Structure to design on (287 residues):
């Protein structure tokens, strides 16, 4: 399907756009091939892949021929839909950034408390505060996942008829939007943990497939979600109130912090790319 889409585009697009669109198709296919990102390393890898994809998208948008096509009146409806979608993606990215930052700050604060080794009662209270803060993060993530689902529904119901070269460009941008939605779903589900993955599985076909894989390999998945591992260790500590578990908790929190820092870097880069693409399209419309 993707291959036939590529050949159709390569036959219809002007020669200046062909090298760029072929690179975009290659990156799209690579991202689709690793669709079920469910570990920190796989999500980071896909974030890097999405950065590469957006570099070529930026090159495509900078071409005068592309800008002329997007500025045509018959394309305005589709371009405005893409701009509306970009606002949702930026909002979701902001939610993910805030979730990572809040979790990281709570993690660092708790690590500092553990190093001071205060009494058991005070330590348990601090851990409970961390778990309460995580509930707030998860609530915001659930809302963001719902917004992505609404966006997916619009994607599937909105009719779109290709109109030569310009229609091909719109089609490319919609495909880039779709893989971005998929990755953000994976990222948000990872930050929130297995519970969010279960909820999001009801919202999209890709997430359903991810959920099925998670059920089959549940134990392996849990071992590779550093944020969820830290939370599980903390819950176990609160339940047992055993100071012997502190060292394990410290290790899990450290792993979680390193994981968060890695995800933050990739997400920030994606956020900047999305802003740049949006500004470019807005400038085209306003010319």
């Amino acid at each position: 399907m993707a291959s036939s889409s590529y050949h159709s585009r390569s036959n219809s697009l002007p020669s200046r756009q062909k090298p760029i669109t072929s690179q975009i198709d290659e990156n799209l296919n690579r991202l689709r091939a690793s669709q079920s990102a469910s570990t920190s390393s796989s999500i980071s890898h896909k974030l890097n892949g999405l950065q590469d994809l957006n570099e070529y998208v930026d090159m495509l948008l900078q071409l005068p021929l592309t800008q002329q096509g997007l500025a045509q009146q018959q394309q305005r409806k589709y371009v405005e839909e893409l701009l509306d979608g970009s606002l949702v993606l930026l909002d979701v990215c902001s939610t993910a950034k805030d979730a990572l930052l809040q979790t990281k700050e709570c993690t660092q604060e708790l690590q500092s408390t553990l190093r001071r080794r205060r009494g058991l009662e005070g330590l348990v209270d601090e851990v409970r505060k961390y778990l309460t803060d995580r509930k707030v993060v998860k609530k915001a993530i659930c809302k963001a996942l719902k917004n992505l689902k609404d966006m997916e529904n619009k994607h599937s119901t909105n009719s779109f008829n290709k109109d030569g070269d310009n229609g091909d460009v719109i089609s490319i941008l919609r495909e880039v939007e779709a893989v971005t939605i998929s990755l953000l779903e994976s990222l948000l589900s990872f930050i929130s943990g297995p519970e969010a993955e279960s909820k999001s599985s009801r919202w999209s076909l890709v997430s359903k497939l991810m959920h099925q894989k998670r059920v089959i390999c549940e134990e392996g998945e849990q071992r590779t979600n550093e944020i969820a591992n830290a939370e599980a260790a903390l819950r176990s500590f609160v339940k047992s109130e055993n100071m012997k578990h502190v060292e394990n908790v410290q290790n899990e929190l450290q792993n979680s912090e390193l994981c968060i820092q890695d995800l933050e870097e990739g997400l920030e880069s994606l956020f900047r790319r999305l802003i740049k693409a949006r500004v470019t399209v807005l400038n085209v419309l306003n010319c």
